[in-house]
Amino acid sequence: MIYISTRNNKKEYNFEQIMRLGIPDDGGLFIPIQIPKLPKSYIDDLVNKSFEQIAFDIARLYIDTTIFTDDELKEIITNALNINLPLKVITNDLGIFELFHGPTGAFKDFGARFMAYSLNALQKKHDNKVTIVTATSGDTGAAVASAFHNIQHINVFILYPKDRVSAFQEKQIAGLGDNIHALEIDGTFDDCQDIVKKCFADKEFKTKLNLTSSNSVNFSRLIPQIIYYFEAYKRACMIGHSKISIIVPSGNFGNITGGVYALKMGLPIHNLVAATNANDVFPNYIHQGIYSPEKVSKKTISNAMDVANPSNIERLFSIYRSTWNNIAKDIHSNSIEDNITKLCIENFYKKYNYLPDPHTAVGISNYYLENMTHSDVFFIVFATAHPYKFKEVIQSISPDIQVSGNNYTQQYESVNIKKTTFKPDLIEIKKFITKLS
Questions:
Q1: What residues contact residue 136 under an 8 Å CB cut-off, 6+ apart?
Q2: What pTM did the predictor assign?
Q3: Longest CA–CA separation in the chain, Å
């Protein structure tokens, strides 16, 4: 597979290069030069394929054998994607696909672990130092910290906004130490993301530190997210459904971009639904045809989606050649305010004895809106985070709700926070990263 930048189709890259570079020098995003198409016969036979087989078949299309042999790729998949993926059937037309059974309780574990195991395999061959600089609104930082913790010759710097991640998320980001460095930024997620982009725009800094990023701007993170759309669709087919839409809580739009790739590869999803919170730049675009990103994100209880200018929109515009009507045909989108999110958490728990976290509740709220006009569709809501990560929010809504953890979440309760606080000061942050790399 050849990769190019969204801003330059002349220069070509392979998978190892795009994973190591993270972002092209021109400031765009890496994309495959063409989206591979699976034959209809493959889609029709999905129900007879294991998750591991589907994962290998799709990953193989994006990663050449010159990078990883079949055996090496299978080993990466076995180790990185060994995460339970239950589809909980709620009603005749609603299922919840739980993506939060990895070590940090969020869907981000899939992408972070796949990248970590892939990069680690390459490090064993080349043994060169790598510096990862990434921005997070919550769950990405936790997943990256867990996936890359104590991997030799890799230093990780995670920038997150002060007072805009949950207490538990901060423990996950800043509680491991060692090669994981937590930078609390006195600003918004968009400030963090802007600093990361400027680090990559400095070619001397990028080259000197062998810089890469590990959030969803790195295409390697999207490959497992493409994979689990096929698994979700397969699970729905196995219980008798054929007209299937998938609702995706969306912030930086990496997860929904994985769905678009799956769709373009031939997966016959009826509609994708990008469920957003009060940060409604994309729903406004879908409804009005005008893309007007905000300068400052709005603070919500679904904090991982508090993004005013989603990075992966550039990939979506590239795939669709910025044609609004084609995007709006494939992707629906609705914005949900906090008061509705809170009502959804409480009422859904009372009615179905199922506790969604705030992000999943935004997705479920989109289901109610979509179901009014598409009652013949089976909707799958991606549950993107374990509710325990947001127990303070949930118990503030209803103190009677008992929020249980699991073996993974318990290990973070006793950690000590290790962080360094900065103003959004690019020069000081670059000095800090250079000193510790």
A1: 142, 144, 158, 159, 160, 165, 173, 189, 192, 215
A2: 0.91
A3: 59
Asked if 68 and 248 touch (Cβ cutoff 8 Å), the reply is no
Give pLDDT tens digits for 180-228: 999 999 999 889 989 998 998 898 999 999 888 887 789 999 999 999 9
Residue 378 tokens read as 């089976």
Retrieve residue 230's tokens.
């096929």
Burial of residue 101 (CB within 10 Å: 0-12, 13-18, 19+) is middle
Q: Are 273 and 248 in contact (CB under 8 A)?
A: yes
Asked if 192 contacts 161 with a C-beta cutoff of 8 angstroms, the reply is yes
The token pair that represents 155 in the structure block: 């230093």
Could you say which DSSP state residue 299 is in? P
- Helix or strand run (H / E) with residue 421: strand 419-422
- Quote the CA–CA distance of 133 and 196 in Å, as a whole number: 7
Lookup result for tokens 């950690």: 415
pLDDT in tens, 249-283: 999 999 999 999 999 999 999 999 999 999 999 99
Handedness of CA 46, 49, 54, 55 (dihedral sign): positive
Instruction: Give the Cα separation of 334 and 245 in Å (integer).
Output: 14
The amino acid occupying position 48 is: N
